[in-house]
Structure formats: structure tokens, C-alpha cells
Amino acid sequence: MTHNLRVPKMTFVKNKIQGHGRLMDPPSRSSMWRLGFKTPVNYDDIELYCGGISRQWEKNHGKCGICGDPYDGPRENEAGGKYATGIISRYYHKDQIITVDVDLKNNHLGWFEFRLCPNNNVKKPATQECLDKYLLQRADGSGSHIKIGRKTGHIYTKLRLPAGLTCSQCVLQWKYHTGNTWGKGDNCVGMGCSEAQEEFYGCADIGILDKGAPIPSTIRPRTRRPHIRITTSHVRKPSQPTRRPASFKNCHAIGSWVGIYDTWCKDFCPKGGIIVHLALGSSYIIGNFSTYFISYMRMRNVSPDIQYTDTIWIVSVGTITTGFTMFLSGILEKRLGSRITILLAGWLMSGGLALTYFSIKKSFLMLLFSYGFLYGIGNSIAYPVSINCVMKWFPKKEGTVAGIVLTGYGVASFIWNPFITLYINPENEIPDFHINGEDYFSQKELLDRIPSCFLVLGIIFSVFTFVGGMLNCTPPSEEKIPDTILLPLTKNADHDENGEEEDEDEEHIEYDRQLIHKPETKKESLEREITPKMALKTRQFYLLWLILLFLNQSTDFFSSLYKAYGQTFIHNDYFLAMIGALGSVGNAISRLMWGFIGDKISFKWSMLILSIILAVLLCSLSLTELGGQYMYGLWVVLLYLTFPGTFALLPAATHRYFGKRYYLIIYGMLFSTHVVSGSVGCLLAIKLKPILEWHGMFLLSGGMAAVCMVFTLMYNEKCKEK
After folding, report:
1. According to the UniProt entry, where is the signal peptide (predicted)?
2. Which single residue of 64, 370, 385, 519 could bond 359 by disulfide (Cβ 3.0 to 4.6 Å)?
3. What are the residues facing 495 on neighbouring strands?
4. How far, in Å, CA of 124 to CA of 182, rounded?
5. Is pTM beyond 0.90 here?
């Protein structure tokens, strides 16, 4: 029985290990493609870890395939498997001292061992019994264990081949026994004491020839990639990469806490993101909140002629501010780190809301500054940073995890709308002042509670952004490595049989660092990282920009004034508040649902389906007057189940097409659409509402959703090489 200290995991995200290391020289069967061999591509070559610690030790009682495949699963890396092609990747001479290279991405303590099996038949699976006969020893005589300490990057080790051994095909096995799991051993209790630790493996096919025998020329690198070329030069092994000094913006654990810290971060970063977005999602409360603060400013003579449609000005100022400032999130994140960026932006947003306690008593212009401008800046900067951080932790499920984090954004109004209504209108009073076709609250006690509600919400949101921001942490940074690395192509003869360095020319293969240090993302992300300047030259950027523009334009009017519209034929303030709350639940479900759908069937088709549903619902919204309050409530919830999904689909689409390095800046550039939609949307609502009335405005909104469909059809998701 194992005694592992486990950190609780999120129930809705499978806690999958991120890749840790791979055998690079000689290259393992799963990694040969990275050096130009014509072998099947395995993007998960750094995840050959027996199916995970639970599967290996609890289900299979410590057993594992000799090359890292799960013991009870397909053996893709053993003879007969997909990656065991029978190609000999390296040749050596008898009794030679060889240098092996392991590319370690994340250090989880522990040690390496290397074993050798003279198999002499590429079609016959090697066995662990054969491998155990030849446990390779270090060239300096210090034994077979290679303790790795705190090293990451390329770790080079000199090993002595077994005396007198030759083979036409030997299987070289790399074993990495980590030390990052707490437990009890024979002589200790603590980190790494238990036998049940994560283990990583790699198998390479090599040949060992008699001394002086010529090296066969069996390797032919791929030629379709221009960055791979053959060179002849005398090289020394690269020195071990050094660690960059720690900085406050990205703190890292040390010693035995590294494994626990990484696991803790991976588990709690999404939770922190959800908490942050519970505050940021307060942008959706304006549809309910506006019926109160517009009534306050009109009845207290702050702005005697103000109307509900003037709420659009607040939305527009916030929207335009978002368009101008969201790109700053990428700049600030690089300079300050994600945690500090979230904290500062969150407090700016909360401060703007709290200042509205004063501005609502002064003028509508000051209200625009505090609740529109300041609130908008903070919200727009904090919004993408936490999403980006979580997508880095879960690069293969970008849409799903973005949707999970954004459930906080969507569900926020489910919490805050009832809170606002109960705080301001606990007696469920109805608007009692009718003018120009609109109903306003005039009850003194109700109006008195409105300013303090802004202050209370500002304090609450500052706490939420602090807690969520502190839970935010970025994945361990990859060590900086040269743009290209030279490794031996057909032999590894930099030492003779006595361990002395030979001064001879060697044939090497030069390969791009992106092939070796590939981000664990979709294949498209492997090819390049697109800079903001390059993005502006792509057709896809402008199509995404137009999709977002017309999507926002089609929904801004509805999301700002759905309650004001409902009040024209529904006279129950609690019911309308509850519909807003249920809509927020739909908002949360929408982001998770559409993010998952986007991961399964692609951004293009997900967005197309979403746009069609949105257009139909908006065009038919006015029919709810005939169906009554329950039909109205159903339509509102369905709309919130639809359009918010865009904001789960779009981050993943941007991340996949343009890459992760400049994601925040490019995503912020896409949100420059808000400058247009904020300005035009405001004018449309104010100028066209008296002419088209409610019914015409909803038909116009549906038409804009239909235009969004057209641009979606034109979008091509494949990132083409230049």
C-alpha cells in the first residue's frame, strides 16, 4: 500500500501529468522524428510514464512496459508497435565510452539508470530480464545511479559499454525514477522515500560494432523541413544550461517541495481563475443594476432627463476602453508577471466601482468615468491574463479549460443580481413612476440604498481578485537554449575505449530547437509563433476581428436592456431578477459547453452553429410578448446559453493559430473591435431605438448575428507555413 500525499483535484479537469523528459541521444523510438528520421511523429514522447503513477503502482503493482508504455495497454514503443520501426539510430564501437543526452523539461528529483539488451532482432520484443543483465556503469566508476539534483535541460552522462559486447541491434533503455511523491520507505518517511514514484522510460535501437569496423550510413534525415541540414565539424558537447535567477513575478519552490508546488499550481490556477472571473463577470449585472441607478439619478435630480437607454453610454465607455487597453495585458504580464497584473487590474476595477458611491451623486459624466472608464480598464486587463495562464497548464484542452475558467465570469451575475436586488429592493417593490413609456423606481428607502451598494460590491470584488490573483501561477519556464543544437548523426566517437577524447571530425545533424522543445499543443502551434506585426498581415486576424465585432454588436443591446424590455409587459421585479440570475447560469454553462465543443469539432463549425442559433433567438425575441413571462424567461436563458460561448472559443482559436508567446497582445488587438462596437452600438441604441422600437432593434441584432455567420464561413483554421 502506498502512502501518497495528494492535493485535491478539480473534479471537472483530469489531472494529467505534463511531459518531463525524453532520451535524445541516442534518440528514443518516439523521439527519432525530432532529429529527422522518417519515423512516426509522437508529440507525447515526454510522457512515456507507464500510464501515470496510479496506473503503474495501484493498478499494475509497479509493472511497466520496458519503454514506458502502460503495462496493461498497447506497447507502441516495443517491437511490433507503431514507433518501433527497427531503424538503428546510433552505432558505437566495442568497449567505447559513450555520451548519452536526456532532455529533461521538468525536474522531479530522483535518478537515471541505463540498461542494455543485445536483442539482435528488430522484430523481437526485448525483455526486462535481458536489460537487467547489462546495467550500464558511469565512465568515472561512480556506479550506475545518476542523481540529477536540480538540473533541467540537456543532461549529458558518460557511460561505458559492457566489455566485449557487440550486437547488430541492442536496445538501450533509459529509466527516470523520480522522487517527488511523499511516502514511507525502509529508512525514511518523506519526499521520495516511497518506492512508488513516477517513472519515465525511453528505448533506443543502437548497434555495437567491432573496433575499427566502418559505421554504416543508414540514416537519412528528412529534407522537407528547410531548417534541418547536415554539417561536418568538430564540436564539443554544449555546457549544461544554467538556471536564471528567480524573480518575484514567478516564484518557484525549491528542494523537495518542487513536485508538490507544481501539482498545487496546476490544480489551483484554474480555481484562482474562476474566482477572479467571479468578480470580472460583474460586467453582466448592468442589465439588472441599471433599473436602480438610472432611477436614482432621475428621481434625485442628478440627471433629470436620463433614460434607460443611456445605460448604453456606460457599456460603450467600458467597451471602448477595453478596445484600447486590453493589449496592455500582454505587456504588463511580461514585465510584472501574471499574478501582479491580475492584482493591480482587479483592484483598479474594484476601485472604480467603489468610487461610483460618490460619482452617482454628482453627475452622469462622473459615473461614466468611474463605472465606465476605470472599471473597464481593470476588467479588460485582468480578463485574458488568467485565461492564458490556465491554457499554458493544459495546452491540449485550451477551449475546455478556458470555458471552465469563464464559468466564473458567466455565473457571476447569478450571484450578484439577486444580491443587488435583495440589498436594494428587499420588499420587491415595482417601479411606480411612468414617463415616456418607461417605468422608474421612486421609493425613498429603495433609492437611499443604491449608492452604498456600489461601495459594498467594490470591497467584495477587491477581495475576490486578491484571492484569485494569489492562486495564479505560471508553469515552470523552459530553460533558454540555442536556436540550433548539433548532435552526432551516425556515431558517437568523441571518446576512445580508454575514455580519452579523440580529435576527429564527426558528422552531425543540426535541428531546430522548436522540434525538440515543442510546446505540448496541437501540431499547428509547432511550426511558428506569430508576432503581432505578422498577425496584422494575416487574413485570419481580420476575420476573427470581424466575427467578434458583429457578435458584440448583435448582443450588446440585448444584454444591457433585457430587463428594461421585460418590464414593458412583466410587472414582477423578483421574477425579472431571477431570470437574470438564471441567464447567468446559462452564461456559465455556455462557456464550458462551447469550449468543449470547440475542442471536439473545431472553432469554425462551433462558431457557425452558435451564430445560427443566436440569429434565430434574437429575431424571435419579441414574440415572447405573446407567450408571456415564462416564454420570455426561456428565451433570455437560451440566449445566454449561446452568445457567451464565443468568449471560450475565441481565446482557444487565437492561441492555436497565432501561438502562445504573443497570445495576450494579439488577443488584446482583436478586442480593438470594442472601440467600434462601443461607439456604433451606443449611437444605434440612442438614435434607432425611438424609430425601430424594441421589435426592430431585436431584428437588427439578429441580422448582425447572420453577418457573423458569413465571416465564420470564410475563416480557415489551418496555420500555413511561410
Report:
1. none
2. 370
3. 501
4. 38
5. no
